Amino acid sequence: MKLTAAALASLLGSACVVHVHVHESPESSSRPRLPEEEAPLPEGRRGELRPETGWVRGVLSGASEGARTRIAAVVPFGSYSTSTTEGDFVLGGFRWEEFALHVSTDDQRAAILVDVKSRTQGVRVHLEAGGTVEVDLAGHEQLRCAFLRDGIHVEDFTLRRGQPAEVVMPPGEFLVRVYEGERIFDERSVRVAAGETRSLVF
């Protein structure tokens, strides 16, 4: 039996409104600009929720009223996201048992949780003032781009030349890496500060 996002939210006793996205449009100004993300579903309609897939349910605090919040489950080589303007969320449809949770808003607030287990309820996410890192490609048409903190992937997406990504992160040190498969083409350290924007071109 196929399980829709609405059915999952009902089963979990949540009345929140959730929109599942496996494509994040770089042109949209209503949410953080990240390129297309890859849905790790080998068959069926992309974005479908199935009983055997993973999910996480949580509560957001610290977001500005009306701000759109993006919630992404992140592992090496991939991420899967949803967005909401509500104070709680359900993210489901991936096949990972453990992942990092990267949460960011379109007005530069962010949070990161690591070692999140699939099928966890009641995850509490507190957003703080963050900064933006703009990333673009100059020497390649397309590569994967990963943000790592303390060696853990906290964002991972496809980066295309001429389609810069704007990634909102909480304050701190990050390693930004562009790679393909096992080959690392370049990586640079960046310090994110609240309210600031840093630019990287690979």
What does the model show?
The longest helix is centred in the N-terminal third of the chain and has 7 residues, at 5-11. With 202 residues, this protein is mainly beta. Mean pLDDT is 81; it is low at 1-33 and 35-49. The chain has 1 helix and 16 strands. The chain has a 6-stranded antiparallel sheet, with no helix packed on it. It has a 4-stranded antiparallel sheet with strand order 12-11-14-15, with no helix packed on it. A 3-stranded mixed sheet has the order 5-2-8, covered by helices on one side. The chain folds into 2 domains: 5-129, Immunoglobulin-like, CATH 2.60.40; 131-201, Immunoglobulin-like. The protein is globular and about 40 Å long.
In short:
The protein is globular, with a radius of gyration of 16 Å. It has one helix at residues 5-11; strands spanning 19-21, 54-61, 69-75, 78-84, 88-94, 98-105, 109-117, 120-126, 128-129, 131-136, 142-149, 152-160, 165-169, 172-180, 183-192, 197-201. It is mainly β and 202 residues long.
